[in-house]
Amino acid sequence: MTRPKILVIKGDGIGPEVIGASLQVLEELGFDAEWIFREAGYEYYVRTGKPYQDDLLDVAAEVDAIYKGPIETPKAGGYKSVTVTLRRELDLYANIRPFKSYPRVALNPNVDIVIVRENTEGLYIQAEVMLGKGQAVALRLATRKAAERIARKAFELALELGKKKVTLVHKANILKVTDGIYLEEFYKVAQMYKGVIEADDVIVDAAGYYLVRNPSRFQVIVTANLYGDILSDVAAGVAGTMGLFGSANVGDEKAMFEPVHGTAQDIAGKGIANPTAALSAAIMMLRWLSARGYGRKLARMADVLEKAIYDVIREGKVLTPDLGGNAKTIEFAEHVAKKALEYMGD
Fold it and tell me: Each residue of 136-185: pLDDT tens digit?
């Protein structure tokens, strides 16, 4: 096949630093892609009055994958999330976030979980109205189509990864209609995998407790949009830090890859941000492209890069400040690349 076309959005805050470092690592490993750069985010909005370049959505629909940094979404005002817009426009209905305990920094060494989060509906449709007299209402969308396909994606992923259990996280004891739909569709899908993959369900507040106290209770978690967003941060805190994990936003045809962390404006421009989450997102992108026909070499590249990151953190010689070291972003990235190249030669 020809080399893949990848849209790159560096984002806000530390985004340009961590994405830039990650792109350098990919280049050193020999990843050959056609990179298409576009601007989007709050900093672009402040400069231009637009959240993204005019042709961004058209380009996003044409490329093989999107690789993006964190994008700032202010707490107030009429500015809508660029990330949410891309997810909806491309129907990237599954947000996939793997969490595995990192040496030296994990609170619990037994985390090995994938969270599969519905990505297009729930409270994130941003349908809110003021009722007057200091009252406001947020509408939550739940459809059987979304509930069924996110459950199906979770079981497919479990099968692919060799996982033995999928757990639905919900609040159907209170939200009996909207979460009730997810509960019903989940167990319908589970019947297709009966005898192969175990299925169970947990109330969302209990799930938060188990993630901290007994994370080995879970293998694959599937859940609605807001719950998945919150639980992902809990999992990141237990397995390491927010600076370590990447995510994939996947549809039936398209995919977007990004770090799970925010823009970290307090350290932006200082060259000390941890690029591991951006690298982890790149690893997921390499595997996704490999599975879509771009060659086994990309999967091999992903494997050695993942091993290199874990070994660099385990050794503790070259670490960014958030991990207890004093290395610059690019120093850490270069050290990872060097070790990955050594492994590729083995």
Answer: 999 999 999 999 999 999 999 999 999 999 999 999 999 999 999 999 99
> Are the C-beta atoms of 314 and 6 separated by less than 8 Å?
no
What long-range pairs does 27-30 form, CB within 8 A, spacing at least 24? 28/337, 28/341, 29/301, 29/304, 29/305, 29/337, 29/340, 29/341, 29/344, 30/301
In this prediction, the residues of the chain whose per-residue pLDDT falls under 70 are 1, 76-78, 346
Side-by-side strand order, sheet with 246-250: 34-37, 5-9, 65-68, 255-259, 246-250, 94-100, 112-118, 220-223, 165-170, 198-203
Instruction: Please report the domains of the chain, with CATH numbers, ordered by start residue.
Output: 1-93+245-346 (3.40.718.10), 107-239 (3.40.718.10)
For the chain, report the end-to-end CA distance as a whole number of angstroms: 26
3-state secondary structure of 187: helix
For the full predicted model, state whether its pTM sits above 0.85. Answer: yes
Q: Where are any strands of DSSP class E within 175-225?
A: 198-203, 220-223
Taking Cα atoms as reference points, which of 141, 48, 44 lies closest to residue 88? 141
